[in-house]
Amino acid sequence: MATNQRLDITYQTLYSELVQRSLDESFTSEFSSNGRFVAVAVKGKKYWYFDSPKPEGGAQDRRYVGPVDDPEITKRVEAFKDLKADLKGRRRLVSTLTREAYLPRPLPMTGQVVDALAKAGFFRMRGVLVGTGAYQCYSAVLGTRLDAVAMQTGDADFAQFHEISVAIKDSMPPILEVLREVDRTFREIPSQADGRVSTQFVSRDKFKVEFLTPNQWSDDQSGKPVPMPALGGAAATPLRFLDYLIYEPIRAVLLHGAGVPVLIPSPERYAVHKLIVGSRRKEDRDATAKSSKDRLQARSMIEAMIANRQHADLASAYTEAWNRGDHWRAAIRTSIATYDDAFQSSFRTELVKGVTELGSNPADYDLADKPADQNASTPHPK
Fold first, then answer.
1. DSSP state of 265
2. Distance CA 121, CA 170 (A)
């Protein structure tokens, strides 16, 4: 099947309905009817928490829900008592979207792991699904069938800001217990930098789960696990560029079972991030394959967003990355140069439109037209 085919508007509408109903259901399953929602001020900003009585009596058990200024969260808090789960109806929607619209369904293990972490509260605690697991959601989000070759994966990657993990004062159950509910063979992989903690977990069949966090410290922290209080005993691997990727994620549904409500990076950030990391993989044994997959995902999503006339969204993400400094610019240039001339020309044309629409000068972002001989003779800045 050809890639980048537009979805019929009927299926796009069904998917939007599934997103809403899945989020509704997550509230009815996570919060019991004998508790109550309370708004709590933390450092000048208000957040919803859910108080429920502990079985043995005594103090209330308080769980983090989300920011009061998130309209989707607050709407459901206010309507909590009226929400009803509709499991069979959502399963029918997922079946229609995967069998009739040919939208991607994740491998069973991927779906089961993401579902288990969702039910354990990972996305409620503002965790974000990243990597190929997130990419599998974008066909529905963008209303376009993306390149299926780039959807093959044997792992699941999850990310959370360290400051969020600390601030919410809540935690998932022990991660290993959650994973072993899916597959009893899951085990911890002790960190090479600190064997007392783990950022990765693997099953006997070599399905790997990894937790990541933005490296907002010095380069010395690279590769050293960071404690994450909200992640049920798991630590996270700090990575550069990840803060850019997971800032202001969007709601989506992974098409597994009755639909798993998740948070994923915005498509424009995901695409530009893949451009950046696709040019920087050096250490993995399969770095070439991963780099190729990164750039294939980036291209497929950029082409879909161009078809959707989302040039301003792409330009906004591109200019933000460009403005972060020389290393970011060099990575973007290197990655774009690996594509064929037709794609490069199309991408540049749309970026010029978007940058101009945003009120900026394309020349400030290496997008001004240059004579052919100048392009050939001017070296890229390091």
1. -
2. 10
